[in-house]
Each structure stands twice: as structure tokens, then as C-alpha cells.
């Protein structure tokens, strides 16, 4: 396996949103050859840990400080052992990996990232939707409301809402009322479709929809206040018709034909 066993290397691996089958082939292969796995506590499906080899050291990062995590990963990596830092979803989205990479680099340890399936994709699959709607929005905004981690003042949800783009809100499950207020202040109608997906792709996954004005009320009634992704936009209930497969549309793999969109498959 490329890079496995190299001295001074830590693999940051996206575990996927919950379903253990959604980890990538490369991520699974790295797990199967790891000497040390540091995983993200209750956010990781523990079934994945069964893919670790016998004798693998497995540590729950929720019980460790950043310094403790970095220390143990650097120690094992500099000894030439295979080290995997297992993150929920995709590490590039709210993964807080930057600080780990900086600290490890300062100790002479290289980090390589293996992408993962995000809850963003898991939620779309659960809802049976696409975020970009032909003839509608072609933009998806991923954001969050301020919590323990502040959000820059220019990144105002009202501004994003004013564009009509699909909005995906992470780490904001307990702020449904605030999301509704800000989006409507940004110009979205109160009857704009909204949805939430709790623990996307996990066995206890739950999905709900509401009009924007009722989002907070509905989520409270369903006792959803954590581990949910919130989607706001017409994509929740609309689907347009893409030109990609329209017989009248040419691209590099296919020439256009004269048949209309009602033409047969051939």
C-alpha cells in the first residue's frame, strides 16, 4: 500500500457519515494495516474498528486533549508504525484537522488525507434529492451558526439566504428558530421547504421536513437538537430537468439528436 509503513507519517482518514460500508476502499485498507488508530469517539461507527488487525492500538480521541493525541501519533509514526487518525464524514468539512497537521508537522511528522463521504452526501441520499436543481439553483452553501466556534461577521446567513442558493447547515441542530429568522430576514419566504436529517446513514437515522417558518418548532417536537444536518431550499421538494441527457444536447461523449425530451431510450 502506498505510504503504509513510511516513517513519520500519519494518515487522516474520512470514515464516512455512519454506515460502515461508506468508508473508501483506501481508508478500509489503511485501517486493516494500522498499528495505531485514533478515532473520533461516539461520532465513528465502532463496527469500523473491527476492521483493525489484531493487536492494533485503538484510542478514543474524545477522552484525550489535542496534545495527548499529537504526542501518541507522533511517537508511533516516528517509529515507523502505521498510524490512522479516523475522522467522521470527510475530514475537510468541520474536521478540525488543521491544528493536528500543524502540531504533527512541527514534530517532523507528515500527514496525508484520505477523503470520506460527508453527512452532506448522506443527507441528500436520505432525502432522495440533489442540491443543485436544473432550472433552479446551481449553488450550494455549507455553513453553520456561531456556537463555541465563532463565525466571521461577514459570513451572515441572511446574505447567503438572499441568493436563493441551497443552504446546508452543520453543527446548528439546536438553532432551528434562529435559522428560520435569519433566512426570512434574508428574503426567503416562510414557506420555503426545509429538512433535517438526524444521524445520516446510521441505523437510527431520522428525516423530517417543514416549512422554513416552522423549522425550529418541528425539530423541537421531534426532539432533534444534535447530530443533524439542516437543509433549506427549493431542492427539498423540486427536481428540474438537466440537459446532460437530453438528446438535443451535445457534449464531448455524444452528438445531439433531433428528438425532443419525450423521445425513447433507443
TrEMBL record:
Annotated Tetrapyrrole methylase domain residues: 10-215
Keywords noted in UniProt: Cobalamin biosynthesis, Methyltransferase, S-adenosyl-L-methionine, Transferase
Pfam families registered for this protein in UniProt: TP_methylase
GO biological process: cobalamin biosynthetic process; methylation
InterPro entries per UniProt: 4pyrrol_Mease, 4pyrrol_Methylase_sf, 4pyrrole_Mease_sub1, 4pyrrole_Mease_sub2, Cbl_synth_CobM/CibF, Siro_Cobalamin_biosynth, Uropor_MeTrfase_CS
MF annotations from Gene Ontology: precorrin-4 C11-methyltransferase activity
PROSITE patterns: SUMT_1, SUMT_2
Biochemical pathway: Cofactor biosynthesis; adenosylcobalamin biosynthesis
Family designation: Belongs to the precorrin methyltransferase family.
Annotated protein name in UniProt: Precorrin-4 C11-methyltransferase
Native source organism of the sequence: Thermanaerovibrio velox DSM 12556
